[in-house]
Amino acid sequence: MTNLLLALVLLASLIAVAWPFLFYPLILRLLPTRAETPVVGPVPSASLLFCAYNEAAAMPEKLANLAMLKARHPTLEILAFDDGSSDDTAALIAAQGDLVTLLRGPGRSGKAHGMKLLAARARGDILIFTDANVLLDPDAIDNLLARYADPAVGGVLGSLHYLGEGDSATAAVGSLYWRIEERLKDEESRTGNVLGADGSIFSIRRSLYPEFPDSVLDDLTVSMAVVFAGKRLVKAKDVIARERLVTGRKDEYRRKVRIAARAWHTHRHLRPQLRRMAAIDRFKYASRKIVRWFGGLFILTGAIAAGVLALRLSPMLYMTGAIGIALLAWIGLRSRGGPLAALVDILIAYAATLQGVLKAMSGRTVTTWNPAKSR
Length: 375
What we know:
GO terms for molecular function: glycosyltransferase activity. Helices cover 54% and strands 14% of the residues. It is globular. The chain has one domain: Spore Coat Polysaccharide Biosynthesis Protein SpsA, Chain A, CATH 3.90.550. It has an 8-stranded mixed sheet with strand order 3-2-1-4-7-6-8-5. The termini are far apart. Helix 2 (59-72) links the parallel strand 1 and strand 2 (77-82). It is built from 12 helices and 8 strands. By secondary structure, it is an alpha/beta fold. The model has no long low-confidence stretch (mean pLDDT 87).
């Protein structure tokens, strides 16, 4: 392999890693704005749904938040699914029977299964999905339902604001990543459709709720059904949800492996419909999903190309670089903050995502979840 070819492989790897965070946002900014066209009509009814497993610590604050939302919206239906919790989660929810209707699972069956049961039970025109540890701002429901005044809008995402950014390097990296993610969704929404939601806060018209297996990510599957139906999936900056960041590396690693594995299964399940999307939506999906899922592979390929190139140019340069990188990685792993710790956490996140994708490609999946202990 010639030095030129090695340099080209290194350059291509760097571009691929930077694509979702640098080149893709720049391209989005060049696209025209697609305006919404609201019409005068009644405010639709809504059902708020969430699943919980061993969230007893978060339940008092969650239930107080729901009571506040219910006071502002007396007709809001609130449904919860307990996935066989071994703590007091179900008891705490059941004690608020006038506020929340509780469905109990037979054991560990997973969030996707629970959400399907809740959606089948819900009566609201709009289904609002959130997580057990997420709190909504007082105006969130008002602002969310207002976007459905446009009949072309089939789904609305909210904005997630993380708490605890300074608690650890892992939390700081997670917060930075999510701020970038939020800006990308803002630009995608401005130019047409957001390509997928996360489970913290999003909504769809009940008539668009799809059928799907328990092995997929329900939030991605359900939100993409809006795009497949020819409706708009948009993001509302003023629909604000708040969640505490994961601060432990092990917790975050396991979380990313689980999400990536289920995301790949979701991709395979949705592939026939993805191929029928408009060209601009296929471009968005590939840029924000597929390229990012394989970011760890691009980093590994680039590192190998850089190492071989350095070795061909000068063995001393190769040895010096290898020792320097190993030393910086050691310092970063032992640090709780600072740029080196942040860099290590970024690399760990890429490794976890790649492991999850490879796990799913081998046929394995994850249907259940556990709350992070370091939240």
